Amino acid sequence: MGGKYQRLTSEAGSKTLKTGLFSYIFFTWLNGLLKLGYQRPLAYDDLLELSDENKAQDLVAKLHGLWMEEINSAKKRGRKPRLWKAMFKLFLRDVILFTALKLVDEAMGITLVVSVWFYLKFLEEGSHMDQTYVVGIVASIGIPSLIKVFFYHHSDYLAVLMGVRLKSAVIGLIHKTITESRRSDLSKFTTGHIVNLVSNDAKRMDELGISLGEALSTPIAVVVVVLLPLLVGWPSLSCLLLMLVLIIINLLLTQLYTNIRLEQAKVTDKRLAVMSEIICGIRAVKMYAWEWKYNETVQALRGYFQILFSYYYFICVYNFDRESCLFA
C-alpha cells in the first residue's frame, strides 16, 4: 500500500492498444479500471487515455470545418445552412456501423419469435421430438439470443459514444463561434439564449444516438406487428391493442414534453435576463430599495420553473415505468 502507484498498462483509448477480438466483444479492456475502482476511489490519473477521435479539440475542429463547408455550399445554392448535415458527415462512419449493428439486433429478435413459434407449434401437435430436432430448436433459440445480446450491447455502446462525441463537438463549436464573432454580432443574442444553447439544446445531443436506434427499430416493430396475427392468431390482437394505446399516449406526452422544454427555455432566458439586469444595475437597485421587488420577480420565475421541472420528471417517470412493464 505504501509503494508508488503504477498507472494502468492498458490504455483503451490509445491508438497503440492492441485489442483482441475477445476483448472487443466482451469489453474486457475495461476490467482493469473496474477492478481498481472497486478497490479504491478513482482519481483523474486512473482514467484511460482518450483516442484522437474522442478528443474534443479534434472533434470541434472537424465539425467547424464541415460547418464552414456547409455555409459556403448554402450560399452558393441560395439556401439556409443545415447544421445536421455537417454533423451527419462527421459521424457518417459511426452511423453506418450503428445502423448495421441495430439491424442485426432487430433481425435476431424476429428470428427468435419465429423459432419460438415453431417450437410451440410442434408441442401443440404432439409430434414425437427426436434428438436432432431438439438440438435444432435449442440452437435456433440460443444462437440468435447470444448474437442479439452482443449486437445490442455494442449498438447501445456506440449510440452513447456518438451522443457524447456530438455533444462535445456542438458545445465546442458554440464556444468557438462566440470567441471568433464580433461584438456587434453577439449583441443580437441575449446571454440566456446562449446559455440555453449549451445547457438545453446541445446537452440533448447525447440522446441522439438512442433516438436513432428507436427510429431504426420502428420498421422492425411493424414487421413484428404483421407477423404476430399470422403466427399466433387472434389472441395477439390484445397485445396489438395495448401497443396502439401506448403509442397514442406516447405521442401526446411527446407533444407535452416538447412544450415544456420550450417553456423552460423561455423561463430560463427571462430569469437570466433579470439576474443580469440586477447585477448591472446593482447600485440603482440599492439606491431605490428595489430589492424586494426584484426578489419577488426572481422567486416567481423560479417557482414557475420548478413547476415545469416537476411536469418534466413526471413524463420521465412514466417512460421509465412503461419500459419496465414492457420488458418485464
Topology diagram in text:
Elements: H1 21-26, H2 31-39, H3 56-77, H4 83-90, H5 92-125, H6 131-180, H7 183-186, H8 191-201, H9 208-231, H10 236-280, H11 282-287, H12 291-327
Helix pairs in contact: 3-4, 3-6, 5-6, 5-9, 6-9, 8-10, 10-12
What would your notes on this structure say?
The N terminus and C terminus are likely disordered. The protein starts with 20 loop residues before the first helix and ends with a helix. The protein has twelve helices and no strands. The protein has three domains: 36 residues, no CATH class; 179 residues, no CATH class; 93 residues. The chain is extended. The longest helix is centred in the middle third of the chain and has 50 residues. α5 runs antiparallel to α6 and α8 packs antiparallel against α10. With 328 residues, the chain is an all-alpha fold.
What is the radius of gyration? 27 Å
Helix content: over 70%
Structural class call reads mainly alpha
Number of helices: 12
- End-to-end CA span: 45 Å
- Percentage beta strand: under 5%
What does the largest sheet look like? none
Number of strands: 0
Note the overall shape: extended
Number of domains: 3
For the residues shown, what is the average pLDDT? 80
**Residue windows where pLDDT falls under 50 for at least 5 positions:** 1-16, 320-328
What is the element string, with H for helices and E for strands?
HHHHHHHHHHHH
Protein name: Multidrug resistance-associated protein 4-like
Transmembrane segments: 95-120, 132-151, 212-234, 240-260
Domain ABC transmembrane type-1: 145-291
GO molecular function, one term: ABC-type transporter activity
